[in-house]
Design brief:
The protein is of the alpha+beta class. It contains 2 helices and 3 strands; from the N terminus they run E-E-H-E-H. It has a domain of 42 residues. It is globular and about 35 Å long.
Length: 76
């Protein structure tokens, strides 16, 4: 049997860290050969590139406002 198995992505936790800076990851980018985790800042910075090759993007940056208030993740 061949095909794609659809699974619900596991929510990101405080243990998931950004591959660029080590901050808490809020974005998981699935690639054909693995995955990358990004904080909100680095997700925005690298979005144009990973959007070209990602098979899926799990974006939980909306949790920043709920968890940390209005100023969270505002730096660009």
């Amino acid at each position: 049997m061949t095909g794609t198995i659809e699974t619900t992505p596991t929510p990101l936790t405080a243990a998931d860290r950004c591959d660029r800076c080590g901050a808490q990851a809020y974005v998981r980018v699935l690639l054909p050969v693995g995955e990358l985790l990004f904080c909100a800042h680095h997700a925005r910075e690298h979005a144009p590139k990973y959007a070209e090759v990602a098979t899926s993007v799990q974006d939980e940056t909306d949790r920043l406002l709920a968890e940390h208030g209005a100023g969270a993740g505002a730096a660009r």
